[in-house]
Design goal:
alpha+beta, Jelly Rolls, 2 helices, disordered N terminus
Length: about 210
């Protein structure tokens, strides 16, 4: 009698992160087991050229709360050929969050930094956060999201395989405050920057609900 095929009796683990082929497919972040959902895209080269010209300003941070009809102002950034395309792209990201979350406002943070903002593996205390890196290395997340969230600071976590976003990639990270995510949430971190590397420019957008 033939030996039983043990492998056929094992149900493969469901994926907990996914790169989707189309923008509309980002709704897959709502799948119960999904922790990270991303979409790769090309961004207007004028945005990169404009941001590169900002090297004289050094590190900066812009924080704004946006309604569904309000474009980012970026008042502290100088005029330039790429400023309007940057505002348009940030407006697109704002619209994605509104469409997905049905929130009343979106909190936007645009930052240029020369250090890893959150270098350790962690889970955000948010519902769902959108992250996009315009320049420099992108956000990193664990390839295997089925890990013990209580053990993220252990030494062995540094050896875990991870995936890294490319510039322009839209990354949705499910947070611990998402319904049913008490013990879950996307395990991710900011990349380390070499001492002589250029500044990293990224934006995060969080849904906000006003009483």
């Amino acid at each position: 009698m033939a030996e039983p095929n043990v492998a056929s009796d094992v149900t493969p683990a469901m994926p907990t992160w996914r790169r989707v082929p189309e923008l509309a497919d980002l709704v897959e972040i709502f799948d119960p087991g999904m922790q990270v959902c991303t979409w790769q895209r090309e961004i207007d080269p004028a945005i990169g050229a404009y941001l590169s010209e900002l090297h004289q300003t050094g590190e900066l941070q812009v924080v704004e709360a946006l309604s569904s009809a309000a474009k980012p102002k970026l008042d502290c950034l100088p005029a330039g050929p790429g400023r309007a395309p940057l505002i348009d792209d940030l407006s697109l990201l704002r619209e994605i969050v509104f469409e997905l979350m049905g929130c009343s406002e979106v909190g936007l943070r645009l930052a240029r930094v020369g250090y890893a903002m959150c270098p350790g593996w962690h889970v955000d205390r948010t519902s769902i956060r959108l992250v996009c890196t315009y320049q420099g290395p992108g956000t990193q997340w664990l390839d295997d999201q089925d890990v013990d969230r209580r053990d993220l600071h252990s030494g062995r976590m540094g050896e875990s395989a991870f995936i890294q976003a490319v510039p322009g990639e839209i990354v949705l990270l499910k947070g611990a405050l998402w319904q049913g995510c008490d013990a879950f949430g996307a395990v991710h971190r900011s990349p380390e920057l070499a001492p002589d590397s250029a500044l990293r420019t990224l934006v995060t957008l969080d849904p906000l609900w006003r009483a």
